[in-house]
Structures are given as structure tokens and as C-alpha cells.
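TODO from last week: model Uricase.
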Amino acid sequence: MTTRETLADSDDIGDSGERTMNYGKEQVAVYRTYATPLEDVRTIPESDFDGRENTLFGLDVRVQVEGEEFFPSFSEGDNSMVVATDSMKNFILHHAGEYDGATLEGFLEFVGARFLDTYDQMEAIEVSADEIAFDERPVPADDGAGFEASDLVFGVSDDESGYGEIALERDEDGTVITGQTSGVTDLELVKVSGNSFTGYVQDEYTTLPERDDRTLYISLDIFWSYDDATDALGDDPERYVPAEQVRDIAGVVFDEHDSNSIQDLIYQIGLRVLERYPQLESVSFQANNRTWIEVRDDLEGDATVLREPARPTGFQQFSMDRDDLEEE
Ligand SMILES: O=c1[nH]c(=O)c2[nH]c(=O)[nH]c2[nH]1
């Protein structure tokens, strides 16, 4: 997942005739040690995740601001209203020390609201971040029985990470959230059996053989939006949806469900997510097919030998809401 937005992604292009005008800073990496622990989250049957210590809290932040008062900086080279993007970076770093909450989304709202409080010329702001994830490292337990996670040493993770995006505008009483998306990105899952891909269009362009079973390798980004965006902040941990639990739902549904395609699989994951979290309005997916190619199936039992696939890669995008759950 990248937090970079291109002009073509912008809402403002096309029919509205409205001008695109914003600026900001991206790839602001910030690390906070001993942030507030996330506690008292509701547990679900698919996951043993019940909170995180936040001993190391790392974020790769992107901030984008808008306001009519920035127009002269584009049209006349008049920087009198411009907050340097370098200062934005410093503002984000400073406020990482002021945040006393426990979630990525909470920090984005906190720092976004502080920007609007501080700079009147900013009318609207979007703040997003990818979590910079760290893994626990096992060390022998103090009581000599087995192993426990070190309090001090962490591995730099190559695995999936949390994602958040918050849009804010000023209103009479302060700031209001106008957009929110949370997510878990760069999940990579392989299921060795129980995946078919059959029944697709057969015509003169079809060379892919139907498969009753295949080793399915997917990379997956999952995003969700709450009915009430303030639930994303984690102030009420019971209503917060942790990225770790959604990650675990994806793994469990993949394990349980014999799918006939990635499309079929992500739909089932989406249903489970909406079922577990009534506070969510919608869930969406970006999947990529990275399935290996079988080179040997003449081995004993179910053993096979596989190789990396050649490019190009297939993808699936899908969004769903509570109506899909009700139709089941
Ligand atoms: O799960 C899949 N969905 C597809 O649409 C597709 N197309 C393809 O070539 N392989 C796959 N796999």
C-alpha cells in the first residue's frame, strides 16, 4: 500500500469543474517509544489478539492540506500563507510526543485537528499513515517456563501493517471528521490445497487449464469504514476494530472456506468482517493473484514442486456493505 495520491485519483478532477489545489508532505517516518497501550478491545473467535503494548509505535505519515488562501502561492509565488512542508514534518514529529491515545487513527485525527487549530488558512486536511510494524522476539521466560516476548527487543517486520486515513474540516465547534478509512495492507497468504478455479469462460483465448485444486497465493489489502467515524479513534476500545483481528479473520476464512476463486474468497472474508463488527459500514479489498505454477505433481501423496509465476498478475477489487450481509 502506498499513501501517495496522484492527480488522477483526486475527487476534484472531471465533471465538477473544481480545481485541484493542495499540498503537503509524505513519507514522514515517526517512531514513538512507550506510547499508551491498546487495552480492552473486544475479542473475536478468529483471533487471539486482545491488545498491544505499543512499546514501539512507528508510522509513515502523509499529510495534505487545502484552503483558498493557498491560491496566491500557486498563481503569484506569494508564500505568505504557506506553511513549509518541512515545518509540517516537524509538526507531525512534535505531536507524536503529545498524543496520549493508543491507535494509528487516533493519532491521525489528533495531529490533523491540531494543524487546523494552529493554521487558519488550512480549511481541510487529509492525514494518512501506514504502520511501521515490529514483531515480538521470544526470550526465555523469567519463571523458566518456556518463552515470552521480550519487553525491549523487537524485530523489524516485513509482514502486513495497519493503515488509516482521516479527513477533517473546520466547523463552528472545532473540527469534524469528513472521511475515514482504516485497513490492513500487504497481507500475503498461501493456501496449499482446497482452492479450485473452474467454470470460467472457455473460448479461443483460453489456455489456462481448469484446476480442481491449486496452491493459491494472494496478496491482499483490506479496508473498512465505520458507521460513526469517531469509533475509528479507539477512545472506546470496545468499538475499535484492530488490524490484527481483521488479518486473523482473513487467515481463518481462507483456512475454512474451499474457494473457487479469489473473488469468492474475498467475499467470504468480507461477510465475516461485517458479521463480527456491526459498527462497520463497509469493507473493501484489493487482491492480487501471485499463485505459483506447478512444475511437478508426480510425487508421492499431495506433494508438488512449484515455481514463481511470470508476469502479468491478475487483481480483484471489491467493496461490500451491510446489504450484502443481509442478503446471505
Ligand atoms: O481466483 C482467480 N480469479 C480469476 O479471475 C482468475 N483468472 C485467472 O487466470 N486465474 C484466476 N484466479
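Done. The chain has a mean pLDDT of 95.
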